[in-house]
Amino acid sequence: MFKRKPFSGTQQGLVLAIDIGTTYSGCSFSVLDPGVVPEIKGVTSFPAQPPSGASKIPSVLYYDSVGVLRAVGAETLLESTIEQAEDEQWTKVEWFKLHLRPKSSKTADLRIHQQILALPPDKSVIQVYADFLRYLFSCCRTFIEERMLSGGVGFWESVQDRIVFVLSHPNGWEGPQQNSMRRAAVLAGLITENPEDRDRLHFVTEGEASLHFCINNRLTVKVYLGALYFLKDEGIIVVDAGGGTIDLSAYSVSDPDTNTFEEITPSEYKLYGTRFEEDIPRITECFDQTTKLQFKDNREPDLDIRSGQMKIAGLTMARFFQPSIDTISEAIVDQRRDACKVITTVLLVGGFAASPWMFSELKDTFQQLGLSIYRPDTHVNKAVSDGGVSFYLDHFVAIRMARYSYGIHAHPLYNFSNPEHQRRGFFISLDDSTRHKSSESHSNASPNTVCKIFLKMRDVEISLSHFDVRSV
Ligand SMILES: Nc1ncnc2c1ncn2[C@@H]1O[C@H](COP(=O)(O)OP(=O)(O)OP(=O)(O)O)[C@@H](O)[C@H]1O
Ligand SMILES: [Mg+2]
């Protein structure tokens, strides 16, 4: 079984994982004490959040008419904030995370593009991200200083210049998105631009963070004849079903002794592509905080209005969930098809994993496909931030699959007079190892020789096509 080692550093430290979600955000941390096994803890209290409140806060901000930040997170839910926002015409910013996404021409992406609210005219997504990060960071500081340690203030001051940050992002976000997040982290004052600070900021995909959470919660082991053993030679798909994206990653155990996992298919993320109409935000807010969370049976009674409260028929409620269930099911079928090992198990985390209806529907669907589905019994929505800390401490994933590969082998006819070939300054060769500029080699190419052209695009050399000199 996995057992974390004591921290081997010589001075105290702090790891802080910040998970900015489309709808909700959370933070987890670990205090690093020399010689002590680090533990992962959640930040469980935020300003304006009732004591029994969830451990995440809404990813929402209010800016006033001159662009000053007026309320963030749970503060945006206060009746007084909402009233003041209406009176003074503040701008509400939500779902801002999706402004950072890699744009694509897929239908779901176009639909999201139409549905997410525009940012205030004078704010870039990096500025909004930075404002939100700064707020979460200050909440973490207050929480750690006040609640977690005796002498918390002194502890914070002593470690603040070497805090390690782990920021999570959806699977499939890469360099450009990480770059934007890094700029936001600098703007928010988490790190400086100094080169030595670069190593203090780490990125993890939501899928990989979720896997780490599942391992910590012993979801990747099976009980067999009373003994625990790792799922060896079997693949598992970890699904983080959040408020805006579904992140899927498939893994298998690569080495049970060292407790390492390998990715067995490129990770994937999907946008739900549906959300409730914007002209009824208050209804959806109530719906999001009550009805949606409790829904478990589509045989509930028909539409009924009593004491000003509308009952929504079970079948109608079920229809709200159906697009998400369909998206998750289809994505799992695709990952299973592409994986290089037999997938037997699905681990479901993220806020949606808490939905009894969602879970039972997915369970039925997957049973027919021969898949078992599990979810952790607690804190499914904190999976990514807890997992982010574990990612830094434990490094369970040893092998990852590239999502893209450069180099396309195709066999169109090469044409010396093709201006497109000439324009790109291509290279040709008589075999794979020797390359010549076309001008040097085409005169040497003898008939009946099969050659290759290589197109140069920026610094990446793309092997575009083979060509056959006979045909020229
Ligand atoms: N019991 C529940 N039943 C149904 N939905 C739930 C339940 N609990 C949470 N949710 C939903 O889960 C979503 C939030 O999940 P989570 O916090 O994982 O998302 P996120 O991190 O904001 O989004 P993402 O990871 O996609 O960016 C919200 O839409 C919330 O309504
Ligand atoms: Mg999330």
Could you say what the CATH architecture of the largest domain is? 2-Layer Sandwich
Number of strands: 23
Global outline: globular
How far apart lie the N and C ends?
64 Å
Model regions low in confidence, pLDDT < 50 over at least 5 residues: 274-280, 429-472
Q: What is the residue-mean pLDDT, rounded to a whole number?
A: 80
Protein name: Actin-like ATPase domain-containing protein
Can you walk me through this structure?
The protein has 472 residues and is an alpha+beta fold. The protein has 3 domains: 13-205, Nucleotidyltransferase, domain 5; 207-275 and 320-399, ATPase, nucleotide binding domain (Nucleotidyltransferase, domain 5, 2-Layer Sandwich), CATH 3.30.420.40; 419-471, no CATH class. 32% of the residues lie in helices and 26% in strands. The chain contains 14 helices and 23 strands. It has helices at residues 79-87, 107-115, 125-148, 152-159, 175-187, 195-198, 206-216, 281-289, 291-294, 314-338, 356-368, 383-394, 419-423, 438-441; strands spanning 13-20, 24-32, 41-42, 57-58, 60-63, 69-72, 91-94, 164-169, 201-205, 221-224, 227-230, 235-241, 245-255, 260-271, 304-306, 309-311, 343-349, 372-374, 397-399, 427-429, 436-437, 450-457, 460-468. The strands form 6 sheets. Strands 1, 2, 3, 4, 8 and 9 form a 6-stranded mixed sheet that branches. It has a 6-stranded mixed sheet with strand order 18-17-12-13-14-19, with helices on both faces. Strand 2 (24-32) and strand 3 form a beta hairpin. The longest helix is centred in the C-terminal third of the chain and has 25 residues, at 314-338. The chain is globular, with a radius of gyration of 26 Å. The structure holds adenosine-5'-triphosphate and magnesium ion. Magnesium ion binds at residues 19, 21, 206, 242, 350, 384.
